[in-house]
Amino acid sequence: MSSAMALSEALLPQEALSGIFGSISLATWIFLLVPQLILNYKTGSADGISLAFLIVWMVGDITNLSGAIWADLVPTVIALAIYFCLADLVLISQCLYYNHINAQRRQSTVISEHEPLLARRRSSDTIGLPGSHRRRSSARSGASEHSGSPLNKILEESEEGTGNQWVKNSLSALGVIVVGTAGWAIAWQAGVWQPSPLDAGMEPASETALGAKILGYTSAVCYLGARIPQIMKNYKDKSCDGLALLFFLLSLMGNATYGASILCHSLEKDYVMLNLPWLIGSLGTIAEDAIIFVQFRLYSKKQTTEAVVE
């Protein structure tokens, strides 16, 4: 009890905020790829996500890991970078698998559609039994009725589901914040987490190895450029189908809390310059995530309007 009180007395507000933001960021990154992995599994497709986005992002994670090790950053950052490289491999492998399987299915479907075409034409020419036209017309009307069911479902999901989707995802993000904050509180009370000295990481930025700087800035460029192929794909398709909204929401939250954890620790010039590549990579992508959020809103409304017109 006395040790906990000593810790609480020595803990400064900026240290507590830095620890809380860092813990929330850690929890966010751990859960980040899960929504997209689940969505791909449920739909059996990865057509909505750009492979270029994932590959460039993985290059950023690899250079981030290499730079973090070279710059001798805190073990949490290094462990998280290792985890993220492994998670990237899982997501990319899943996308490649579904793209391969679906390409084979589309090819087999095209072949099967061409083979019975002649047989269907012959049967329609030779068979002229009484009532056959009536049956065909009733089949068409039944098909049109069934085709209306998916349309109604789409409209219901577009009108009612879109708002619920944002609410559910916001609640999920709030849950991650609670988990991250609780994790920090437990670690602090148990003595596992302790505030870093304010002069930690204050060595002049000029003393940082040149290779670590290059890797750090390379990772920042990759993170900033990775989302561009996804934004362009969404714009070209006029759709965000196949993308997990929670994936990008957690990405924005993780980047924001990661940058906040660094800035809350210290605003000294040398410390900020040392962490500048990681700050650029995290805070710079927030604007791009915001663009994707706008696309989610715009294209969901556009799809609803098109469904109504049809």
TrEMBL record:
Gene3D superfamilies, per the entry: 1.20.1280.290
Keyword Transmembrane helix: yes
Keyword Metal-binding: no
Subcellular location: Membrane
Topology versus the membrane: Multi-pass membrane protein
Chain segments annotated as coiled-coil in the UniProt record: none
InterPro entries the UniProt entry points to: LAAT-1, PQ-loop_rpt
Keywords: Membrane, Transmembrane, Transmembrane helix
GO molecular function per UniProt: basic amino acid transmembrane transporter activity
GO biological process terms on file: vacuolar transmembrane transport
Region: Disordered, residue numbers: 124-151
Record field: transmembrane: 20-39, 51-71, 77-98, 171-190, 210-228, 240-258, 278-296
Primary location: membrane
Biased composition (Low complexity): 139-149
Known catalytic reactions: L-histidine(out) + L-arginine(in) = L-histidine(in) + L-arginine(out)
One Pfam match: PQ-loop
GO CC term, one of those recorded: lytic vacuole membrane
Family: Belongs to the laat-1 family.
Protein name: Putative vacuolar amino acid transporter
Species of provenance: Lachnellula occidentalis
